[in-house]
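2024-03-11 09:14:02 INFO worker-7 job=invfold-0412 stage=load source=structure_tokens
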């Protein structure tokens, strides 16, 4: 049994109405997101795939990885994708005091220019959420969660199952989670092309969350 939802239930979204769970669905747009990069091999592969399908996406980056792989970061920006803050060290909000958590977000904001924040593991406490905009230096900062998980991080799933997770649950406006990480690579590498092709065949377009 998996300890997370593939499709985010409506009751969870309603419990936290200030968080972003979906993007604008007009024009049949869906929003692919990639967490935990940039990575020097996985991220360029993702960018190549997106280019094949003329797809835009949003990358929630770890500050520490941005510093180590600046040229990959530059390519993400140059190709018009959205960028978000995913903390500097991938800290878990439930296990970190608010001051330390926000200091980590602030450190990431020094190398990631974005008004979008996604908490690692989707775990953030109220006292942390309240301080995000100030820590990021972005008065209009938004906390972005998701509608659909591919579960590419979960080795008990096959690549086909990860693709099916997305293809079964995506609707216009869905925010979909993948990971441009070594851990997710065995599933990501098989699932992403299936998802891009499958959603495109159903008439969806792929947008970046930059303007949300
Ligand atoms: Zn993450």
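2024-03-11 09:14:09 INFO worker-7 stage=emit residues=212
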């Amino acid at each position: 049994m998996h300890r997370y939802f593939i499709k985010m239930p409506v009751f969870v979204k309603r419990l936290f109405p200030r968080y972003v769970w979906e993007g604008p669905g007009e024009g049949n747009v869906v929003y692919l997101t990639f967490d935990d990069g940039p990575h020097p091999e996985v991220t360029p592969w993702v960018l190549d795939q997106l280019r094949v399908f003329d797809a835009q996406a949003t990358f929630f980056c770890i500050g520490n990885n941005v510093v180590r792989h600046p040229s990959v970061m530059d390519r993400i920006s140059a190709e018009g994708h959205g960028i978000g803050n995913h903390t500097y060290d991938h800290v878990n909000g439930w296990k970190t005091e608010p001051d330390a958590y926000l200091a980590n977000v602030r450190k990431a904001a020094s190398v990631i220019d974005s008004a979008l924040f996604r908490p690692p593991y989707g775990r953030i406490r109220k006292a942390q959420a309240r301080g995000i905009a100030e820590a990021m230096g972005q008065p209009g900062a938004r906390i972005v969660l998701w509608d659909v998980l591919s579960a590419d991080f979960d080795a008990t799933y096959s690549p086909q199952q990860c693709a099916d997770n997305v293809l079964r649950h995506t609707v216009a406006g869905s925010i979909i989670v993948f990971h441009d990480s070594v851990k997710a690579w065995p599933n990501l590498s098989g699932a992403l092309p299936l998802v891009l092709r499958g959603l495109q065949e159903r008439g969806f377009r792929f947008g970046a969350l930059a303007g949300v």
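2024-03-11 09:14:09 INFO worker-7 stage=report msg="The mean pLDDT is 96."
2024-03-11 09:14:10 INFO worker-7 job finished
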